[in-house]
Design goal:
Length: about 180
């Protein structure tokens, strides 16, 4: 078993930051509107780009870890299971902001570092990297990303706001406790 994790929406919870940033842009959204695939249907592209630039470039000031993420990552380490971070981030400040956040939370370099963390640009690139790494179990918060992960046998949608329907190509989960159950640890 080789495990892959997305960063934003799986390890980092941007829910309240997105609500605040959308409000700053003049949009009133709820928790259920914050998943990326939904938010892009609500905000005009210009506003969405501005929100993303602030959210991913400002060191995640308003963001936090998802409950249980650190504890379960520690258990994965104790079980000796190989794991990887495969996240979609544009190069430069967006990657350095992600690493800075992970350092602040005690994840970098203890759990994630240059040897097991990969930042890609396009959704399809996640499949390329997952195939290269031999990932067998992947956790992401975007159904359209999971649909593109054809090389991964076990795909899990992290849907902590319960907004997406069940699909045949993924198993829906809502918490890190569910991740623990799916990994049988």
């Amino acid at each position: 078993m080789k495990i892959g994790f997305d960063l934003d929406g799986v390890i980092i919870d941007h829910t309240f930051a997105k609500i605040k940033l959308a409000a700053d842009l003049g949009f009133n959204i709820t928790k259920k509107d914050t998943p990326s695939e939904i938010l892009k249907t609500i905000l005009p592209k210009k506003n969405l780009d501005e929100l993303r630039k602030t959210l991913y470039g400002k060191n995640h000031v308003e963001s936090s870890l998802l409950d249980g993420s650190k504890k379960i990552i520690q258990e994965i380490v104790l079980h000796g299971l190989p794991f990887f971070l495969v996240s979609r981030r544009n190069p430069g400040i967006f990657i350095s902001a992600a690493i800075k956040f992970l350092k602040k939370e005690g994840f970098w370099p203890k759990y994630f570092n240059e040897t097991n963390s990969f930042f890609v640009v396009e959704k399809e690139d996640k499949n390329t990297k997952a195939k290269e790494l031999g990932i067998t179990h992947y956790f992401d918060d975007e159904p359209d990303v999971l649909e593109k992960l054809k090389s991964v046998k076990n795909r899990f949608l992290f849907d902590n706001h319960n907004v997406f329907p069940e699909k045949s190509f993924y198993t829906k989960i809502s918490s890190w406790k569910d991740i623990k159950k799916q990994l049988h640890i």
